[in-house]
Amino acid sequence: MGKALIIGAGGVASVVVHKCCQNPDVFEEICIASRTVEKCDALKEKLGGGRTRIQTAQLDADNTDMVIDLIRSFQPDVVINVALPYQDLTIMDACLETGVHYVDTANYEPPDTPKFEYSWQWAYKERFEKAGITALLGSGFDPGVTGVFTAYAQKHYFDEIHTIDIVDANAGDHGYPFATNFNPEINIREITAKGRYFENGEWIETEPLSEKKVYDLPEIGPKNIYLLYHEELESLAVNIKGVKKIRFWMTFSDNYLNHLNVLQNVGMTSIEPIEYEGQQIIPLQFLKAILPDPASLGPRTKGKTNIGCIIQGVKDGKPKTYYVYNVCDHEECYAEVGSQAISYTTGVPAMIGAMLIIKGIWKKPGVYNVEEFDPDPFMEALNKHGLPWQENFTPTLLD
C-alpha cells in the first residue's frame, strides 16, 4: 500500500521499524536512515527477509538538502521523524520541497534553548495546506496518545471538558544507579526546566519539580508524581474548547532525583559550552555520552508503565469524571521488539499515525496535532497493535 522513510535508528526507531514490518499490507517498503548507518543496517539484518522490503541510508538530518535528496531517491509516501526534535524543521522543510507527508513524536526545540513550544511548527500550516500534504505533530504517547485519549473522551463522554490531568508513571527498574529511559539530553532538559500548567486562560509557572503529589496508579501502586511542563498542554489548551485547567505529572524515584540534583549542582546538566583542554564542550552532551544508551536498557528493565488522562467535566448538565490509561510491561515489550516500554509506547503510536495517513484516514492538508482528528480509528489501532487501553469512570481525582 505505501512506503515510509524512517529517520532515526535509536530505541524508538527500532520499535517503529518492527511495527511497520508487522504490518506489511500497509508498509510495503521502508527506508531506515540515520547519521550512523551501521545501526540502520543492524535493524535491516534483524528484520529483513519478510514481506516489508527494507533499505538503509546514511543521513545527516540537520542537512535539509540531504533529506530532500533521500526523499527524491526513495520516494516515500510519508516521513516518520524519530530523530532528535532539533531536526524537526529541517525535515519539515524537506517534506514541503518534495510534497511528502510528515509525522513526528516531539515538538521542535532549539538546541541552544530548552524551550518547548509548537509555534515554530504551527507556522508551517499554510505552506503544508498549499502543498496539499499533512504534517502530524506529536504522534508518540505523550504527546500523542494522551491527545487522542482526550479527543475520545470529548467525543464520547463529555459535553464540556473542564480539567485534564495527564499522569506518566514508569515503575520500571533497569538496575543502573542512574540512567534515562529516552535520550538523556532531551530527558534532562525537560526535567530541569521550570514547570508550567494552564488554568483559566493563563499559563502558571512553577519551579522545577516543586509541585509533588502521591497517586495510586492501577497495576503499579502509589507513586510520587511531579508537575512538569509538557508540549501537549499547549496544543490541548487550543484544541479542547472550554477547558479550564490542564496539568502534566511524571513519576521520579528519590534515587533518580538525588543523582540528578548532584549532577545539576556540579554543572553537568548545563547546555552552556565550556572550554576543556582547548575544545568547546557542552556538559550535558558529555553526560549523555557517558550515561547508558536508552536503547540498551531493554534486556535489563523489569516492571510496568502507566500513562493516562484523568478528565473532569460535564455531561447532560451533570458532573462527570473519566480516567483512560494504558499499562505496558517492559519485559513483554522486550520479548516482542527488543526494546523497553518507554520506546515501545512512543514507537507504536508513531507507526499508527503514519498508517492512518497512508490509508487516507487521517490525511488532510496542513499541520495538525493528533487531537484534531477523529480519535476512533487511532483508539482501535492501539488495541490491535500492542497498547490496549482501560477506562475508569470513578477515578481518584487530583486536587
Residue stretches low in confidence (pLDDT < 50, at least 5 long) are: none
Arithmetic mean of pLDDT: 94
Estimated share of beta-strand residues: 25-35%
**In terms of structural class, how would the helical and strand content be classed?**
alpha/beta
Radius of gyration: 20 Å
- Give a short account of the largest sheet: 9 strands, mixed
Helical content stands at 25-40%
CATH superfamily of the domain at 143-337: Dihydrodipicolinate Reductase, domain 2
CATH class of the domain at 143-337: Alpha Beta
CATH architecture of the domain at 143-337: 2-Layer Sandwich
Give the tally of β-strands. 18
InterPro entries: NAD(P)-bd_dom_sf, Sacchrp_dh-like_C, Sacchrp_dh_NADP-bd
Protein name: Saccharopine dehydrogenase
Organism: Paenibacillus kribbensis
Domain Saccharopine dehydrogenase-like C-terminal: 140-387
Features:
Dihydrodipicolinate Reductase, domain 2; nine-stranded mixed sheet; alpha/beta
